[in-house]
Write a structure and sequence with these properties.
The protein is built from seven helices and six strands, in the order H-H-H-E-H-E-H-E-H-E-E-H-E. The protein is of the alpha/beta class. It is globular.
Length: 177
Amino acid sequence: LYATRAITPGRAFAPNGEMRSLFDQSFPYRETRDQLKAIREIDSDMERPFPMDRLLVGDVGYGKTEVALRAAVKAVENGLQAAFVAPTTVLAQQHYRTCLARIGDLPIRTALLSRMVTPAGQKKIRTGLAEGTIDLVVGTHSLFRTALEFKNLGLLILDEEHRFGVAHKELSLIHIS
C-alpha cells in the first residue's frame, strides 16, 4: 500500500491563501511548538504531488483537532471537499460544533452526517456532497457507505484512527490518535 502511494500521482495543493490565513488568525489560543510543527509538516505534505498519509498523535486537549481543521480549510480553499470521520455520534457532534465555531463567517459549507440526522436530512447531505454544495462534512462510519459520493473529495481525516478497520484506514489521509 505504501509503495503504491509513493508512486501514485496526487494533487499538489497551493500554498495557504487568504481563507486559511483568516482561519489561522481566528484561533483564540496560542499554538504550541508541536502544533506549529505538525501544521507546517501537513501543509508541506499537502503541497507535494502525491497522496499524503500522516499520523497525528497527542494527548486529549493538545489541539489535534485544530491541526486537522487547518488541513481541511486548506483543502476547501483549493476547491476540494474534506471529510472528518469520528468513531461515535457524540464525538462527531462535538467536532461538528467545533467546526462551526471555528469556521465562523468563512465561506465553508459544513454538514453533519450521522444516525442522529433525519433520513430526509441525510438524503439532502448526500446530494450536497455529490453536487459539491457541501465543502466539509463531519460524520461517523456513515461516511464510508458505498452509496455516498463526493464531487471532489480532497482530504479524509480519521479521528481516533485505532477505532477503525484497516479498510477504512486505507482510504484516509490523516489519522488522529
